[in-house]
Specification:
The chain has 216 residues and is mainly alpha-helical. 44% of the residues lie in helices and 6% in strands. A hairpin with a 6-residue loop joins strand 2 (77-81) and strand 3. The protein starts with 25 loop residues before the first helix and ends in a 14-residue tail after the last helix.
Length: 216
């Protein structure tokens, strides 16, 4: 049996396609994060990684490629390499992630993990953490958290974008924070409104009345 239950040698159920993105509520995110220990080193690391994904919108490969020197804690800025051009790109994180990041940085130091040649999110002996590990982690802890949605690293990127939109952030700002080259790509990220929700929203929109002047 292969990863997530499909037979080895057979294509996965979503081979060649993508599942639709699911957005988590604030409570669902907190429940998932709450499955990570605040004391065990691996839990501190996993908590910091998930919180950063949620509060920066980084792609999983971007987050796992980070070195400690790529973070500016004072400016809350992150230096990443653009996945398309390979050029440096500046991104950022929300202050909500400060505590989790600082705890992991302190834990790294206490474990004697040096910064030279190691990634920010590494094993307890300084080795690399794979995206497969992170996906399997979320696959395990989401059900334990009572979340029945499909939770993958990209879920937090979409949730971050949706929360920014709900907070009134301009699409141009959201686009820059996500590292998109096109606002059209960002618009696709934000297109989570269902037809039923659109119909409901229509009821509260003030449009010019068709009623005769005297009949109002």
């Amino acid at each position: 049996m292969g990863t997530f239950g499909h037979q080895k040698g057979q294509p996965a159920a979503n081979d060649g396609g993508n599942y639709p993105a699911e957005i988590l509520s604030r409570g669902e995110v907190q429940a998932v994060i709450g499955q990570c220990s605040k004391r065990a080193p691996t839990g501190v690391r996993n908590r910091a990684l998930i919180v950063l994904l949620y509060r920066s919108g980084l792609r999983i490969n971007e987050a796992l490629a980070l070195k400690p020197s790529d973070l500016d804690m004072g400016e809350r800025s992150i230096r990443v390499l653009d996945p398309k051009t390979g050029k440096p790109q500046t991104r950022g994180w929300h202050p909500d992630a400060d505590d989790a990041l600082c705890r992991w940085l302190d834990t790294r130091k206490a474990l004697g993990i040096g910064n030279h040649g190691t990634k920010l999110f590494c094993t307890l002996d300084g080795g690399p953490v794979s995206d497969r590990y992170v996906r399997n982690l979320l696959h395990r802890i989401a059900p334990r958290a009572g979340v029945d949605k499909r939770v993958v690293p990209h879920t937090f990127r979409h949730t971050f974008a949706k929360e920014l939109e709900d907070a009134g952030a301009p699409v141009t700002t959201i686009s820059k924070l996500l590292g998109h080259h096109s606002i059209a790509t960002t618009a696709h990220y934000l297109d989570h409104l269902t037809n039923r929700e659109a119909v409901k929203a229509l009821q509260s929109i003030a449009l010019p009345s068709l009623a005769p002047e005297g009949a109002r």
